[in-house]
Amino acid sequence: MSNTDLIDEAIERYVSERMTGGRERATSRFLSYAHLKCAGSDVGEFMRHVTGLTRYYIDVTKVFENPFRGIEMAFLSTMLVVAIVSCWLLDNEATRLCGICVFSGTLVHGFALVRHISRKWLESDVMIAMYEEIVALVEQETTLQS
Q1: 48-85: per-residue pLDDT in tens?
Q2: Backbone dihedral region of 22: left (phi > 0), alpha (psi from -120 to 50 degrees) or beta?
Q3: For an engineered disulfide with 86, which of 10, 48, 76, 103 has Cβ 3.0 to 4.6 Å away?
Q4: What per-residue confidence (pLDDT) applies to 40?
Q5: Nearest C-alpha neighbor of 140 from the set 27, 60, 4
């Protein structure tokens, strides 16, 4: 197992334990895992690598997992265009039924997409917060060891 794999496993264990058991339990398990996997002098280096990789994960999550920068916003803008076209269809008597059907479908799918975007946004914010907890924990631990 490479050093990056150990760090990834430690971060994943912290996140999963934090979701189920709380911060204190996740902290103690993370530190025990770090001390178990690394020898005495290697723990400091392991913690520095954890900090670097976790900050990288924070940056990646902010950029790539942001639903306001992804394909979801393209779909939402397309739904807005379809809603405008359906309002135009509602104006004409011959196409009113088609406009009603298209507008109602656009509303339903638009609300589902907004719900998906908000859920994804909240999940990415939670992950960023957990990664920041790991960085703070590692910085606190390296300060105590110094």
Answers
A1: 888 888 999 999 888 888 777 778 888 999 999 999 99
A2: left
A3: 103
A4: 66
A5: 27
What does the DSSP 8-state code read for residue 146? -
Q: How many distinct structural domains can be found in the chain?
A: 1
Contact (CB, 8 A) for 124 and 66: yes
Q: Which residues contact 88 (CB under 8 A, 6 or more apart)?
A: 99
d(CA 76, CA 109): 9
CB 124 within 8 Å of CB 65? yes
Residue with tokens 């997992």: 65
Q: Report the C-alpha gap between 132 and 141 in whole angstroms.
A: 14
Using DSSP's 3-state secondary structure scheme, residue 137 falls into helix
Domain range for 60 is: 3-145
Instruction: Find the Cα–Cα–Cα–Cα dihedral 112, 61, 125, 27, rounded to 10°.
Output: 140
pLDDT digits (tens, 9 = 90+) for 6-58: 888 888 888 888 888 888 888 888 888 888 877 666 778 888 888 888 999 99
